[in-house]
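Collaboration report, partner site 2.

Our partner group contributed sequences for two proteins of shared interest, and the home lab folded both. The records are reproduced in the order in which they were received, starting with the first partner submission.
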Amino acid sequence: MIGVIVNTITVLVGSAVGLMAKKLIPDGWSDFIMNGLALCVIYIGIDGAMAGENALITILSMAAGAVIGVAIDLDKHLNNFAQRLEARFKKDDGKTTIAEGFVTASLLFCVGAMTIVGSLQAGLTGNNEMLFTKATLDLISSCIFAASLGIGVMLAAAFVFVFQGSIVLLAQLVEPFLSDSAISEMTCVGSLLIIALGLNMLGITKLKVMNYMPAMFIPIILCLFM
């Protein structure tokens, strides 16, 4: 859980700094820094994708996961949920509320392949490297977003702790079913989704990454037979 705790603390610290420096960060800087973060995310994805040992498993996992994700339409459900919350809590004058800041930050910090893969790695192998990397990104992101969205971003730290902590703890339950090969292939597939997130952040693509999320768990089944 050390990675989850560190990630939670970085969101709190980054948000505190952002709130204090709210009037000191020019609007143009935010976009420039976020583009730099996007490049880092793509690098992390490429590095993680090298963990894969069987390209066929990756291809089959992405294909099967996409079919499942599109059938369920995870991206649509997630966006609809967020829009309902934002519509409910947003003030009539259009200003950002605490609830809106909380929802936006929670989605930013917890919806993504890096969260899932990092938490699984922490729970299964004790490797917190990806969560530490994510914590660094969240430190900067929370600072920038708190400067524009307010204290709601700081409150999202609680959601980060509960969401990622739950994945870490549940990972222990499935450990008997996961081989080293399965973990490597899951990391590879998840890293491809991380690359997609980076491309979306840069505005190059508009991929519905959430609809590919089931692909990360398909290698567990495929590695039993391949």
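Second partner submission, folded after the first:
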Amino acid sequence: MIKPKEFIEEKVQEIKEVDGKAVVGCSGGVDSTVSSVIASKALGDDLLAIYVDTGYMRKNETEEMDSILEEMGVNHKVIDAKEEFYEEMEGVSDPEEKRKIIGNKFIEIFEREAEKFGADYLVQGTIAPDWIESGDENRDTIKSHHNVGGLPEKMGLDLIEPLYDLYKDEVRKVARELGISTAEKQPFPGPGLAIRVIGEATPEKTEIVREACHIVENEIDKAVEEGKMERPWQYFAVLLPVKTVGVQGDKRAYGHTIAIRAVQSSDAMTARFSRIPLDVLDRISTKITNEMKDEVNRVVYDVTNKPPGTIEWE
């Protein structure tokens, strides 16, 4: 069991020994934010935190992350790269290919910005489940993580990974010690909403799942505040690659299907599906199909544990 204060002091001292400047990829999640703040404490203005808007971020994520990094005193830059990512992802449906394309594009942007900044190092928020699931010569690949399996061989920057041996619950303890306002924020995958669109993650389909995720998150947050349920570890929506027949008024409709996913876990290595009260599921389904009636006409709930499933669908 780690001692957060001692862990922070140890990592700050380690990073202080770095000779040169560094960039850190800050995705908006807890892992990358903690890594950014720790590295900032060690390097000050010799660190540049880069937040890349890939077009696959959650609703309002970019504005919120800009505010958080400003609040924590981290030297940072927000880059709008939506068009670059959409172009690279055109026609891509395979989940592993999506992850690696996004990982490579992240690093390409970091290298570009690092060169401008004069950096020699890349700080990443890699944690233990990332490299365990990405596999190596002794382990099967469950799924590649963009900060592991997606790294190009000749990256051009040396890696610093302060959270490499930690699990998510330990990262949250460190975040609380640092006073980061998003310490309890649910995990968000590196490839973002691209892997919550099953199949090709077009801008149009991404916007559908972005709105659906926003509704799921808001309604579950409201139910937790009302005391109706325990807060899940992770909760979101997935856009399925099927359309089904429905009814709008007295007319036949043909719309997309949204799956709700919510799980309880402590370390992301195993998980059980959350037992969301039926009235909460009803409220989520009704809101999605009412507010997105031109796109979605069916909502289902995923009751798969991990294993055999994974938390994300891709």
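Feedback sent to the partner group on the second submission included the following. Strands lie at 21-25, 47-53, 76-80, 119-123, 158-160, 234-248, 251-264, 272-273, 296-301. Residues 28 and 64 are 8 Å apart (CA to CA).
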